[in-house]
Design a protein that fits this description.
This protein is an alpha/beta fold and about 160 residues long. It is built from four helices and eleven strands, in the order E-E-E-H-E-E-E-E-E-H-E-H-E-H-E. The two termini are about 35 Å apart.
Length: about 160
């Protein structure tokens, strides 16, 4: 069978296949080859008569992130706040370079716009070649656009602490 690892915990891998989730272990051959299954991996696996699953093969990866350890990511939500903490364009640029290098589509999400909207026009101008979503959870602005962006995609969410991820 084929599936996708959606969770890894304490040596167990939870593989989604055909609208079911199977609990699997990795075969010992992965230790010998120094391969480690990651969340996001497409895998071939088998279920034995005791309903125990075993990952048999890792299918080719399109990209790998080390922190968090995941692979096959389609897009990255780069979440930054306009204030509290203050917007950090240098850090955003570093994140953009990293995800683009891995062929991951960046989507910039700017939160807390209800607290200060003075930088919105400048951010929109500076990052015009990217998809930018402005969000206020208090005023329910941009939430539906973020949800729509997530549909059908493997997404990693990253950003500073305190930005409202």
């Amino acid at each position: 069978m084929e599936g996708k690892i959606i969770k890894a915990l304490a040596g167990f891998y939870y593989v989604s296949s055909n609208d079911q989730v199977y609990t699997c272990k990795a075969r010992g051959k992965f230790r010998k080859t120094k391969q480690k299954p990651l969340v996001g991996d497409r895998v071939e696996f088998d279920i034995d008569e005791n309903q125990e699953g075993y990952i048999l093969k890792l299918l080719p990866r399109k990209n790998v992130l080390t922190r968090p350890p995941i692979c096959n990511v389609d897009q990255a939500l780069l979440v930054f706040s306009i204030t509290h903490p203050d917007f950090d364009g240098v850090l955003l640029d570093r994140f953009l370079a990293m995800v683009e290098h891995l062929s991951i589509e960046p989507i910039i999400v700017i939160t807390k716009i209800d607290l200060d909207d003075s930088l919105m026009a400048q951010i929109q101008k500076d990052y015009a070649s990217y998809k930018v979503i402005f969000v206020s959870s208090k005023e329910h602005i941009g939430i539906e656009e973020v949800k729509a962006t997530l549909k059908g995609k493997s997404t990693v969410v990253t950003g500073q602490s305190g930005v409202g991820k």
